[in-house]
Each structure stands twice: as structure tokens, then as C-alpha cells.
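Lesson 9: reading folded outputs for more than one chain in a single document. The general rule is that every protein is listed as its sequence immediately followed by its C-alpha cells, and records are never interleaved. Here is the first one.
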Amino acid sequence: MPDNIPLMTLDQYWIYLLMGIFLGLSGFLYEKAVLNVGRVYDWIGQKIRLDRAYYPILAFILIIPIGIFLPQILGGGNQLVLSLTKQDFSFQVLLAYFLIRFVWSMISYGSGLPGGIFLPILALGSLLGALVGVICVNIGLVSQEQFPIFVILGMSGYFGAISKAPLTAMILVTEMVGDIRNLMPLGLVTLVAYIIMDLLKGTPVYEAMLEKMLPEEATDEGEVTLIEIPVSDKIAGKQVHELNLPHNVLITTQVHNGKSQTVNGSTRMYLGDMIHLVIPKSEIGKVKDLLL
């Protein structure tokens, strides 16, 4: 990123508010897409009678044209993010890049191959920020020298909304940029995006993914298992005796600040901690609804 990015004046801060709303709405759409793309694969698999183990073949076939014609937008996206401030992309090109990366990110994640969504989210956020920046520059709301800040704000706001971890997003992007002068705009955009996501009843995407991985039910009611669940917003701040768990479910330990500790009725749950439960397989679905 360029050094000494010119700061926007206070009378331009309304742009940040609108950008936060836009990123919050976009983050909500991303979450809905990434959590439901598996259904599209299942539907296609049923139509062509393809086993789930072969879903990655579909992703591989669909990614070949992008690798041939647009290799610069493949991968995690770090080079794409850097190029946004070094090259003068038009609105149409940025929109095309965003749509391609969005769709193919869903294709890649839905195939079930090991990967991740962290860097793709940052890359998509940077493209959304660049789109807003190009519009603002073209209609004369900001100068071309102020354009890079929109890329930064896009990453922070989009990731903060999707992960519902605004402080993490702000600190992460600030560390990446190495300039704390943008902390106020980052905070405003990211918190507005987070609030919009919360008003839309969006859930932290990583918790939602974990919830989808847990089985809905089990046929063997007598067999017990040990599972690990993150402390979500729903139970954060509560004590164990306030959770109203089924009588045959036992919380054994809680991992707090990297240290495991035994749990009793007065132990308080903290957001971001992990708890371990001994639970009958038949109760997994019920406990998932109670805790996540």
C-alpha cells in the first residue's frame, strides 16, 4: 500500500457510513452463499449421479478457464489486493473480478477440498472497497490520492461483518497496512458493517460452519462422544448452571486464554473460548441449538 495516504475530512465521513452499510449487506449475502453452496453441489450430484467424493472434479473443471485467461485473480488474492493500488482498473473490470472471485470461491469451498476463506474474504472486501472508491473518484467526492484507503476499508469492513469480529478485523488490517492514522475510518466502517450484519441476524461465519459440520442426529442413542464447541454470543457471559443442558450432557473442560481448566456450575463462559462436552450422539442436535 502507498505510504502517507491522504486522510478524508470530517465532511466526507458520510461516505464511510454508506460504505459500512454496503459492506454489511454484502457480507450477509456472502455468508448465505457460502453456507448454502453445498446444497447446490448436492443437487447437481443427484442430477448427474455423482458421489460427494468426486465434487472436487467439478470445481477443477470449472476453474481451468479462469486459470488460462485470468490467472492473476486466482489463489488467495494477496497479489490482487496489492495490484489494486498500483494499476488503474475501471469499474467494469473491478466488478468482473469481484463476481468471478465470488462465484469461484463458492465453487472451491463447496467442493469440500481443504482450503480456507480467510484470504478470499479479504480479497473480495478489497475489490468491493475499490468499487466504492472508483465511484467516489469518478463523481468527484474524493481525490485519486485518497483511493487506496477504500481498499483498506473494504477488507476490514467485509471481514468484520462476515466474521462478526470487528476488533479483530480492525487490528488485523491496521497491522497489514502499518499505519494507525486510518484507525478511525477503519473503526467507523467496520462497526457499521458489523451492526448491519447483526441487524440482519447474521451469525459469525466460522461458528455457522462448525454448526453445519455437527451431525443433526444419530441413530445410536446410547453411544456417547466428546465434542468441542466454541463459546458463542448466545452463551457468552453465562455460568454453566444457567445453560439448561440435558441431564446427560456434561461440560468437562473450558479452554480459556490457551489454558484448559475444569468446569463446575459457577464457571463463566467467555466468548471465543472452547468447551469440551461429553454427550450422547442423540443429543448433539439439541445441544447445538442451545449453545450455537
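And here is the second record, again sequence then C-alpha cells.
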Amino acid sequence: MADAKTIDGKAFALGLRQRVATGVADFVGQGHAKPGLATVLVGADPASQVYVRSKGKLAVELGMASIDRKLPAETTEQELLALIAGLNADPAVNGILVQLPLPKHIDTAKILLAIDPAKDVDGFHPINVGRLGSIAPGAPLDFPVPCTPLGVTMLLQDALGTLGGNHAVVVGRSNLVGRPVAQLLLRLDCTVTITHSRTRDLPALCRQADILVVAIGKTEFVRGDWIKPGAAVIDVGINRIPTADGKSRLVGDVAFAEAQQVAGHLTPVPGGVGPMTVACLMYNTLQAARRAAGLPYLAV
């Protein structure tokens, strides 16, 4: 069997970013203010600083307004809640992203709950989680959806076309990836099985999958002989492992070289799902601005 076709998330994300930039230009050209993305960073975690800076930079590149709010680590929960209340009330802000993790003295759940669901571009607010859980098959995603799961389904639709009728097995049940991916695949008429660390005979279930989405956080956990020949495999995992030269490299939750010999389509790590997350954040911000202006959902 020929090697699996690589699903190039980096290239797709670049195209999505370009389509979002076009959508922003059209939106502003109709007389609306630039879509505004507010990022909130509490403390000085180096990785978080890099993430926030990259998101703000990309927003500006795509024609949006970037609103940065950097707060010291000793910021109180009440001070952070007051800042979020101000962003909720600000018509120039269409999306609010609070960078996690927050300092231990702040209740993360309370902070995320305080964000206006219409501006919750991460898609984590319980109201948006409920909307996704109750969406009708094929209905438009006219509310914020978690970025990584949205990116997964975009890549699958691009690679396979119509997904209806496929048996999709999701390995992982997290609120960030596993559960929302399953809901999005149900919306696209897949038959969905959710598995996790307590699932019995997981390899046998994986072998039934036409679509296998792996987000379990374990290095090269899914082996080649777990995969149905010709299946589409989406590896959401990002794990750093040491190399012989004392450095490190990134690998996924799927044993890539083994899977490549069996699967029909396969995402690499890096360069697969990862680039889609921030591109979908920009997509969500544009959609939030359109909804605030009373405009319909824009398919890009």
C-alpha cells in the first residue's frame, strides 16, 4: 500500500488566514469598525507571552485591531473580573481571550464564565458548549466553537469531502478537544465513538475507524497496527521528546512512521493540527464581529 497522503495543516491554515483577511477587508469596507481581539495575560510566563504576542501580531496582519491587556502576577481575581467586565461592555472588542494558565490564586472557571458568550472566541463558555451539544445536523456554526476541534473538522472536510456515514473514533474525552470534536463530527453526520484511558480493547475500536482523531496526550500511543487500512488519522497530540544530540523534537500521539504505512490520510506533528488553532481563533473573531453587526455567518 502506498504511503498515506499528508494532510498539510500549515498550508491549509495559511489559506484560511488569507480568507479571513479578505473577510475582514470586506467587513471594514462596508463601513464597520475593525474586528477587535482582546488578549489578557496575567503574569510573565515566557511561553504565554510568546503565544499572546503571536496572536496579537497575526490579528493585526489580518486587518483586525489587537487589544493587549498585560497584568502583574499579583492581580486579584476581582481586578481581573473587573477588567473582563470592561471588555464585555466595549463595542470595539469582539473577541476576548484570557491566556491560560492563570496564577493559582485565581479561579479559572469563574474567569471563563465571566466572559460574554458572544465574545468567547475560545468557545469554552458553558453556554457555547451547550449550543454545540444541541446543534442540529448540518446547522451553521453561528456561535463560537473551540478552535482546535474546529480546525480538525476543517482539515477532514478538505481531505475527504463529505464526511457523512463515516465511523469516527475519537481517542480522548477532554473538554478542550475530544468532546467538542465528537459533537462537530456528529453535526457532519458521522457515526461517532468516544474512547478514553479506561476503554476496553482500545486497539480493536480504533481499527473500526474510517476517521481516527487522537488527542490523549501520550507520546506515539496509537500504533500502526491499530489503524484501519485507508483511514484518515488526525493527530492532535504535541509531545516533546529528547534526541541523541541532547536537544528535543516534537512528536504526536500517533506513531507517525507506522501509521504512514497504513493510513489513507495523516496529519504530521508538527505542521498538522497545530497551525489551525490560531487560524481558527482569527476566524472566530471575524464571525463574532459579523454577528455583533447583525450580519449572517460567513463560510470561509
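What the second record shows: The chain has a mean pLDDT of 96.
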